[in-house]
Design brief:
Belongs to the asparaginase 1 family. InterPro entries: AsnASE_II, Asp/glu_Ase-like_sf, Asparaginase/glutaminase-like, Asparaginase/glutaminase_AS1, Asparaginase/glutaminase_AS2, Asparaginase_C, L-asparaginase_C, L-asparaginase_N. This is Asparaginase. By secondary structure, the protein is of the alpha/beta class. The protein has two domains: 213 residues, L-asparaginase, N-terminal domain (Rossmann fold, 3-Layer(aba) Sandwich); 109 residues, 3-Layer(aba) Sandwich (Rossmann fold). It is 25% helix and 20% strand. The chain is built from eight helices and 15 strands. The strands form three sheets. A nine-stranded mixed beta sheet has the order 1-3-2-4-5-6-7-10-11. A hairpin with a 2-residue loop joins strand 6 and strand 7. Helix 2 crosses helix 3 and helix 3 runs parallel beside helix 7. It is globular. The two termini are 31 Å apart.
Length: 342
């Protein structure tokens, strides 16, 4: 799918200009992709320039420009979008050393996945902040404008430098690795279920209280600059009474890797165990995750096949990490080492 990219400098849009000291403010680029933050009831998605121009208070904090990357709901995002977005961010940072940071407006359905992919593939310590909204722009108490302002505030914060890819929603700052969407409607949906938030956006400033210790951005080993297509990794969920035949049939699909969403602690139904034994004979790397939101699989149960254990990533993020790991190796032991590290 081709996307149209439009660059509009707000200084040229007449929103600012005569503010004293405006030229001394840090510069932020807002990359728009669509999503609820760009939605109106019974109307097409708002285009990038219009979305940003509707929040002139942004100019109290930064010189803002906007580039429209895509205009889609985030449920339509694909791995190809991730690759192109990561490459575009790296191009922008490489060509503009004075840019303070980048804010990405994004739908909330897959925001955490895009954030995690970028966390492992953006090659800069400068802040990249993803932001969305839970309410459309024409709803009462729409949360998009405040979220967008706070995301820009985070992007220009010195404390955000080197923190990896961040998510700024509902005045909370979360690490891309740990953030989950936990509610389908409420504005406090994004949470670091296992480890909490990194910080907060308060009226008097941006405050960080924690730091993510897993490798990210410049410390990540993953380079997608020459990757045209990501490996195919599928996700299969266990459930009570799962028939072995279903798993075997699923295992006949084309795939380079498989993520399995299991019960607590990595325990599986008899049908899943038997079916995965068949799939493993194809030599496909199998990563085991738990459907339980909190805690992690400490050690793998005694499976009748070789398996890689996810050390805390839920299935959607384990899929991303396996995709990237497979660009470097297909050896299970090496992939387990990557999951242990990240």
């Amino acid at each position: 799918m081709k996307t149209t990219i439009v660059l509009v400098l707000l200084l040229c849009a007449g929103l600012v200009a005569a503010k004293d000291g405006a030229t001394t403010k840090p510069r932020v680029l807002i990359l728009t992709t669509g999503g609820t933050i760009a939605s109106r009831s019974d109307a097409p998605l708002i285009r990038g320039p219009e979305l940003v121009q509707a929040v002139p208070q942004l100019l109290d904090y930064a010189q803002v420009s906007v580039e429209e990357f895509s205009v889609i709901g985030s449920s339509k995002v694909t791995p190809d979008h991730w690759l192109r977005l990561a490459r575009r961010i790296n191009e922008i940072f490489a060509s503009d050393e004075q840019l303070a940071g980048i804010v990405i407006t994004h739908g909330t359905d897959t925001l955490e996945e895009t954030a995690y992919f970028l966390n492992l593939t953006v090659q800069s310590k400068r802040p990249v902040v993803l932001v969305g909204s839970m309410r459309s722009s024409n709803e009462v108490s729409a949360d998009g404008p405040a979220n967008l302002i706070n995301a820009v505030r985070v992007a220009i914060s010195d404390e955000a430098i080197g923190q990896g890819i961040l998510v700024a929603m509902n005045e909370d700052i979360s690490a891309a690795r740990d953030v989950w969407k936990t509610d389908n409607r409420r504005v406090q949906t994004f949470d670091g279920v296992n480890v909490g938030h990194l910080g907060a956006v308060d009226p008097d400033g941006v405050r960080f209280y924690h730091r993510s210790l897993q490798p990210h951005t410049l410390a990540s080993e993953f380079d997608v600059s020459a990757v045209s297509t990501l490996p195919t990794v599928l996700v299969l969920s266990d459930f009570t009474g799962l028939d072995e035949a279903v798993v075997k049939h699923f295992g006949e699909l084309p795939m380079d890797g498989l993520v399995v969403r299991t019960f607590a602690g990595g325990r599986m139904s008899a049908g899943m165990l038997a079916g995965l034994s068949s799939i493993s004979r194809r030599g496909i790397p199998i990563v085991v995750t738990s459907r339980v939101p909190k805690g992690r699989i400490v050690s793998a149960p005694d499976y009748p096949f070789s398996a890689i254990v996810s050390r805390g990533q839920q299935d959607n993020k384990a899929r991303i990490l396996l995709m990237l790991a497979l660009t470097k190796t297909t050896e299970s032991e090496a992939i387990q080492g990557i999951f242990n590290l990240y």
